[in-house]
Amino acid sequence: MPKLVLALFALVVSVGCAVPSTPFAVDYLVRPTDTGVSVVADVRGGPDVAWIGFGVGPGASPDRTTQVAGVRALDQNGVALPIEAAGHAGYRITTNGEPWQLTYELALDQAATADTFYRGSAQGNDYIVLVGSDAWPRLYDDPTPLTMAPDNRPAGVVAQATVRFYLPESNRDWTIATTAWSEGERVFAMREHPVASVFALGPFTIDELPNAPRLQIARHRDWDLLADDIEPLMATLVESHTSSLGPASQRRALAVLSPLPDRLPIRGGLRTAGMVRDQTLLVYAARSPGVDPKHPGIAEAMAVFLGHELFHLWVPSAVQVTRELSWLSEGWAMHMGRRAAVAAGHIDEDDREEHLSAAYRRYLDIGGYRAGSLPAASLGREDQRNLLYLRGELIFRLLEIEWNGIDSDKSFERALWRSLTTAYDGFEPLDARAIRQILVRLTDEVTVRRYVEGQAPLTPETLGLAGQ
Ligand SMILES: [Zn+2]
Questions:
Q1: Mind listing the pLDDT tens digit for each residue in 158-184?
Q2: What is the CA(201)–ligand 1 centre distance, in A?
Q3: 43: CA distance to ligand 1 center in Å?
Q4: 24-202 under CATH 1.10.10.10, yes or no
Q5: What's the 404 CA to ligand 1 centre distance in angstroms?
Q6: Environment class of residue 34 by beta-carbon count within 10 Å: exposed (0-12), middle (13-18) or buried (19+)?
Q7: Range(s) for CATH 2.60.40.3650 in the chain?
Q8: Model pTM greater than 0.85?
């Protein structure tokens, strides 16, 4: 019996000590099609048996992986390699250790809600936005990650990747906007798996802001809001954030400005939407046809909106936070967006006070009095986002009032920013516990318990709105 145990032990050890394979290197070639993109990936490195899995960005529906179809693996002679489905949206591929090729189609359907923002139309002014977490497979040397949910998978063991694009002849004025490193026309390189990459393909004009040369602005041909005033406005908003907090990051950043997809109705005069993926801001906006493009309300709303979106280059891009802290990043972005709009001269301080009173009334209207913990609410349903943003902004105001000024610095946001950048190692996103410690230090235990953890209701008095 002891011999058998020893033999089993030796077997386990020999499996555990298998010679580590070289990491994967992947060169993607992407062709836009009528229904999305077709991808050919040349793969080198990796073990004799490779495990690949498609994923989605954090918080996205795991069903998005069903938009990937026709997954095939070929050897260097074009002969099909054995491939079996494994785990959730994953495959086991016997590669024999030689370079091989992976091919698949990614469907982007502009009529499907999940894809509304990634593909505008199928006409000449089309555009395609490829988000790395959804578009590129992750490659593994063991099957464990395939048992994890697609929105929770590690990036895999990719040491080097390039993406090349084949743009159709009919779209001669298409260009590619991305923060990835350009190695030549339409060829981009990344040092690791491009899970956080974004590539926007379409008729974009790319400019740099004079005061933020690392931030590129890619403007779609059909973007018409504020015309040539849009870039000076963005420069002023960036200036405001930089003077409050210091520079965002040494990394390259991109803001893609696209018209709102046609199928989205515009209620009121203006509709906007913004998304942040790593160092890329995807910004969409359109006005109702009946609204005068020079109406001051347009510039005011755009200043607040873009001030909010640009702030995300500080949090959560330059300082990453977990999703349970979306109340903090969004509430702070709301606060900073309005502040930057004041600095840009589009709203005055009185407007800010009125806005806060209005925000508080609206907060009560949509059921905000049912407190609860903000980190828990941050993990809640998508349709609760508005309430969370509003509540986050009010709480941010309250923390500012309660700030005890232990830092020699005079502003709360600067003291908070300094604490965040000190606590953040540039790699692991900050979690609710780390933030709790910081907030307790900047205010006190009771404030955090009452308002962040929701043990007491928000009142006009606590928000400094008494008498209004
Ligand atoms: Zn936001």
A1: 999 999 999 877 777 889 999 999 998
A2: 23
A3: 37
A4: no
A5: 27
A6: exposed
A7: 24-202
A8: yes
